[in-house]
Fold this sequence. Notes:
Layout: H1 3-9, H2 15-23, E1 27-29, E2 32-33, E3 48-50, E4 53-54, E5 62-67, H3 89-92, E6 97-98, E7 107-113, H4 116-123, E8 131-138, H5 143-151, E9 164-171, E10 176-183, H6 190-197, E11 201-210, E12 213-214, E13 224-226, H7 229-235
Parallel strand pairs: 7-11
Antiparallel strand pairs: 1-2, 1-3, 3-4, 5-7, 5-13, 6-7, 8-10, 8-11, 9-10, 11-12
Helix pairs in contact: 1-2
GO molecular function: RNA binding; rRNA pseudouridine synthase activity
GO cellular component, one term: cytosol
Family: Belongs to the pseudouridine synthase RsuA family.
Amino acid sequence: MRLDKFLVECGLGSRTEVKKILKSGRVTVNQAVETSAKTQIDEKKDHIAYQGKRVIYEKMVYYLLNKPKGVVSATVDRKYQTVLDLLDDTARQKEVFPVGRLDRDTHGLLLLTNNGALTHELLSPKKHVDKVYQAEVAGIMTQEDVRHFARGIELKDFTCQPATLEILAVDELSQTSRVQICLAEGKFHQVKRMVAACGKQVTDLQRIKMGPLVLDETLASGDYRRLTESELASLEVFGVAL
């Protein structure tokens, strides 16, 4: 691989920016300063450093985002801010994309990666990957609603697979509920439509879990981080090279 291509893919900057960095003498290859962008390197064996710190080649990257309300789960949108707008230049240069989508007014866990094979596995209906949400609801959710979810709610255009509804809290005075919902599908507005089919309305919706990944409570809304080693290990069950 060419040295400039390697440095670009590692997030040091654009091809033009990387060439300037090389000319400044801040990059070493096996402890020797290298200024030529055309230099061929072995990304797996050679020791590449920038300002004395080793640069590790990553083909695939994984970010856990606490998506805020008002942001769309897309790579480009002419009207609204996208989840990619929340990333720094280094992350965006890896050409990541959201795994699935959350509605614009839904917040919580969203995985961003450039691993298309893993994305397919996580979203495939055949895999039945659970998604867990917590919702604030206008109206009192009941045990009949729990049974309704378990049977599979019939909507206008499709019948939902059986899902789990857990009632976390009920406020009789304000006529509101807080619930947790686990389902293996991801249809458009599905959680909201399922609750609406029970005669209530979702007023706030947060995803807290997707497959083995759990929302990091230390992440502020709009913040993100790389997956930890243990989180990456938990994804190996899908049989995809990470």
